[in-house]
Amino acid sequence: MTDLKTTPLTGILPVAPTPFFEDGTLDLQGMKNTLDCLIDQGVDAICILANYSEQFVLSDEERRVLTKLCLEHVAGRVPVIVTISHFSTQVAIERATHAQSLGAAMLMMMPPYHGVGLVPAADGIFEHFAAVSDAISIPIMIQDAPLSGVTLPVPLLAKMAREIENVCYFKMETPFAADKLEALIAAGGSDIIGPFDGEEAVTLLADLDAGATGTMTSGMFAEKIRPIVSHYLAGDKAAALAQWQLCLPLINHENRQCGLRACKVIYKEGGVIASDHVRHPLKPMTPRTRTRLLELARDLDIMALRWGK
């Protein structure tokens, strides 16, 4: 397996949705189809068990089943990033060592949080990531997202990159992400191996201008978004801009109107998965939002709409 600390990962690392049947049970064949569809889209890595995977509605046993299934099914075709976020440092360590033992190439973690009223101090956050790093040998990507309600100042992030051996990738999803990415790269220097953005690539051009080397989007249409990054990193900023402008209506609709449901709706429509079910208390997409999503996706002729047909 490639060492992603010495050979930096760049490009697009989409989050795989977790398919359920209409009764809410796991669709394991659908999970395999999802991974194959993503690989066929030409992704550079796949992230599982993230927020857009509905990690917050999965039981511990389901997480173990999915981690094993995904790593065995991908079988080294692309690196797999396993999200292990949890408020408990011990649980995060257990998830980390389990993922590494099964062949994960990287871990992704949000800072520990349990609602806005239960957030550790900066030293507790540092110690949380350090404890996980001490238990494994693969890279850690810190997910800096508003969902946690935890403020991660640039000096703290740079300190973790310098002093915690395996912390070297960052997914920046905060407001004004480009400014934060630029500041982090300046503060962390060579310890910032993988500066990435998220948010479905809605700010991707600005983030690339700031020094990002890739993006972690949903799995909806990675084959259309990946060229934005590859063109930019190859020095063709005009081509990158043109591709981003082409994709932006669908990116914006997903980011602002659909959320994690978008990828599932598209995958069901394309025969990748049997159902676009989301577990309660999440609710299905409205017909109005769904109609516009499918229209925009068909206009771009995205692969997932025809993958299973």
UniProtKB/TrEMBL annotation:
SMART domains: DHDPS (SM01130). One of its GO terms (molecular function) is 4-hydroxy-tetrahydrodipicolinate synthase activity. Keywords: Lyase. It comes from the Bacteria. Pyruvate binds at residue 216. GO terms for cellular component: cytosol. InterPro entries: Aldolase_TIM, DapA-like. Belongs to the DapA family. This is Dihydrodipicolinate synthase family protein. The lineage of its organism: Bacteria, Pseudomonadati, Pseudomonadota, Alphaproteobacteria, Rhodobacterales.
